[in-house]
Amino acid sequence: MKNSIVLLLATVFMSLQAVAQKGRIAGTVVDENNETLVGAVIEVYAHNSRIATTTSNAYGKYDVSVVAGKHTVTARYSGLPTAKYTGVIVQAGKTSTLNISFQPSTLNEIVHYEKPLVGREIGAENIRNAPTRDIKTIVATSDGIRRSDINAAGGRGGSTITVLDGMYIQPQYYNPSNEEYKKVAENDFMNVKANPLSTMSIDVDRASYTNVRRYINYGQRPPEDAVRVEEMINYFSYNYPAPTGDDPIAVHTELTGCPWQKDHKLLRIGMQAKKISYDRLPASNLVFLVDVSGSMSSPDKLPLLISSMKLLVNNLRNEDRVSIVTYAGSAGVVLESTPGSKKEKINAALERLTSGGSTAGAEGILTAYKVARENFIKGGNNRIIIATDGDFNVGVSSDNELEKLITKEREHGVFLSCLGFGTGNYKDAKMEMLADKGNGNYAYIDNLDEGRKTLVSEFGGTLFTIAKDVKAQIEFNPGKVASYRLIGYENRMLNAEDFKDDKKDAGELGAGHTVTFIYEIVPAGIRSSDTRKVDELKYQDREPARDDFSDELATIKFRYKKPDGDRSKEMVHAIKDKTLTLEQASPDTRFAYSVALFGMILKNSTFKGSGTLEDVIRLAKNSKAEDDEGYRAEFIKMVRNVNDNKLVSNN
């Protein structure tokens, strides 16, 4: 007993000592005009090694925890020269204030490279904006790569240089060669006469938006397959009225003109899930499944993961419980189920996590499900939260094998949510599949502010399912609509017969969540290349519309199950043929259109019509409305970033 007490005291002392050796650096990031910058990348270095990374939030603020000592802080923002601060003193247990200001470059000539160049030998002929004389020496500076010896003799392109790891190139590029994104063909226009029904699984994943933001903040356009337009639209909350009846979902629609195709219309359909106050949410049985493999060592992976999960832990109630399972070469339980009242114990377990080894992800998933079942709370929120870069390389690792594993395990009433972290070897497709098959949701966390948004501000929507297997089916009136196209949701489409099939898996809806989807419509009687021609049908009613439905554009139906139910309930909503001008449309509708158009432009969509980035900015600026948390302002700055700097594409 005595030895146990001594060991406990020693552990507590070591934990307190570790905390005492850390301090914080915090401040605000502004440009040369003193305007706050959202998404600036801040990195802290000690002895030439990067020890922490964060980004400025929607208010231009940042806050990062680091070991005490003297550090160098750099800040990057696409299109601006790097800001660098040396000799930043951090004292244990205290916060050092460092306000960062970007200044315009004083160099007359900055050479930009077209591709990632680390380890490659490059001649002047391969450099955009290359000087007329030979490049004899290239020097890495905080402002980019500049020509050092402008008077070098020789002809243009006669010399080469090798770009070494660690040299700063403006803008800095990711090498996406090891990142995996599922290739999906965009939804095409469907002729209403041949395809009157459009059926889909409702989904509220939002990972694509933050992943896209990650690329843009580092000065690079995202790969086209990384852009899922519906997830970008649904990253934002919309002010839809809450449900008032027995159903936990309310439906709202608007029909307007289309800003990128003047003869087309847009139908915005919004769903609002029932809001539940935090203190009335059911008790949670959470299992943190944490990837501690060697690939998770960088600051934007395991360290950010730990900081994000601690935000969640600090908001747990006494009735909530947490277990922690880790996996690398093998899986293990590092914290048995612990009540939310013991936050220090849970946080101490998180702080002890270190990375190393290969990635036995499937074994970790099996262990996590076992722990979740052992601590199952009847009527509660039983959920595994897997946090990883998605790089499974030991044991069961193929998508088909993992899908079978997850599909079998979800029958026990345990949901699976995925939090993605990191760059370089990120496996987006695998993460999306895991959350989809595990009856959960998927978010990508690129900074601590996003961790707070996902796990604190949107706690109920992220972690508490109020309706599962939610499906939508819309029937268009051929007297009003010639053809239609659903924007996004390509990997959520269902067959018409799946709508009433209760065995068919579909998406989940969290407490308080909004879901928005947009149809682009070619009205009946409009001559358009987007109206696919079909022969007249012999065995079906060929009348354009029945008289008693002549004022209806479409009818939309929803089916959902209760979180612990097996039978679905149906809702029906008729959509009137009443078109608003864009100016008459609600700010939420216009802002959703701006995000949709931005996504299509990033995807280089054949359906973007006349839409430009300037159109996106104009639409978004005129519909920002209430933006207390600054996310819409951040979006506008991000679009300007792409427009002003002509970011290089990965594709």
Structure report:
- The protein contains 13 helices and 29 strands.
- It has 651 residues and is of the alpha+beta class.
- The chain folds into 4 domains: 20-101, Immunoglobulins (Immunoglobulin-like); 111-169, no CATH class; 190-276 and 467-645, Immunoglobulin-like (Sandwich), CATH 2.60.40.1230; 282-463, 3-Layer(aba) Sandwich (Rossmann fold).
- The strands form 7 sheets. It has a 6-stranded mixed sheet with strand order 13-24-26-16-15-29, with helices on one face. The protein has a 6-stranded mixed sheet with strand order 19-18-17-20-21-22, with helices on both faces. Strands 14, 23, 25, 27 and 28 form a 5-stranded antiparallel sheet that branches.
- Helix 4 packs antiparallel against helix 5 (343-351).
- It starts with a helix and ends in a 6-residue tail after the last helix.
